[in-house]
Amino acid sequence: MTSPRLPLPTRDGVGPSCVGLPQGPWPTIAEFLMARFPAITREAWMARIEANDVIDEHGVPVTAQRRYQAPLRVYYYRTIDAEVRIPFDEQVLFQDDHLVVVDKPPFLPVTPTGKYLQESLLVRLKRKLKLDDLVPLHRIDRSTAGLVLFSVRPETRGAYQAMFPERRIAKHYEAVVPWPPGVSSVPGTYRSRLVDDEHFMRVKEEEGEPNSETRIVVKEAADGYALLDLSPVTGRKHQLRVHCMALGMPIVNDPIYPTLLPQGSDDFDKPLQLLAKSVAFQDPVSGELRSFTSPRSLSLPPR
Questions:
Q1: pTM for this structure?
Q2: For FRET with 1, which of 65, 102, 184, 212 sits at 20 to 30 Å CA-CA?
Q3: Residues 6+ apart with CB under 8 A from 205
């Protein structure tokens, strides 16, 4: 199965965004776009329209005077002015006709989000590898460093995606956490029920049937810190971070747990001490046993 052809090509690693036109009172498509996206100035929209960078689903350009027509899908290029460069580089560890495995640095989101567009792992890779159909098979948090798998071909994408919900891929993380005085061990397996918190950035635990599970091994402990090996059995949002916090050991330099720091407070000298260290699985296309390990490593703070 091939991907449907979009009316605008990928440009500088960024594919076109799409918005559907609902029933409404707008006299022109341009007026709707300005009302729907008020953060983009009228001048910016007019410049995009004049450059033929706003196109409908049939490939027909949207002009400044074109009457509003619902339902219709409109495509355009998203841009961000003065995007801040994330001063760390990704590393491609493996690439074949179906799969790309990448080691992601901290602070870099996997996909475009919010104020990050060019400074996302997906867009960087599309530019570097010239692969417009590249799609991440899973996500790790922007703060987390380590391994991310990408699908190259739409025809085999479903086979790789199925590995995750079917738990046919083994994932291991490392984390540095505080080691409270008097603590001699942690549970080998921690389970809890995770639900959305009041703030969209966070999740929290609540009473009820567990829906998350993490296996925990203490690799090293000294001078008030411990290096943990974390193996998530399930893949809930922020699972490892919340489980460590629940055990009284929030991951070092976590900007969300236990305290949510304001946006824009990144400290590049203090990355979250959580690393997606390794993955292993049987390749659903080739049948080969695959194993990948991040060249990064975590260690306890120097004495």
A1: 0.84
A2: 102
A3: 192, 193, 194, 195, 242, 246
Place of tokens 């490593």: 297
Specify the pLDDT at position 6: 73
Active site residues: 141
CA distances 209 to 189, 235, 275, 289, Å, are 15, 16, 28, 34
| pLDDT, position 75 | 94
Report how far apart, in Å, the C-alpha atoms of 79 and of each of 44, 76, 88 are: 10, 10, 22
The residue behind tokens 């942690």 is 186
Separation of first and last alpha carbons in the chain: 56
Instruction: Examine the pLDDT at 82 and tell me if it is beyond 80.
Output: no
Residue whose C-alpha is closest to residue 180's, from 244, 125, 122, 241: 244
Q: Is residue 66 within 8 Å of 56, Cβ to Cβ?
A: no
Instruction: Read off the pLDDT of residues 14-36 as tens digits, 9 standing for 90 and up.
Output: 788 899 999 999 999 999 999 99
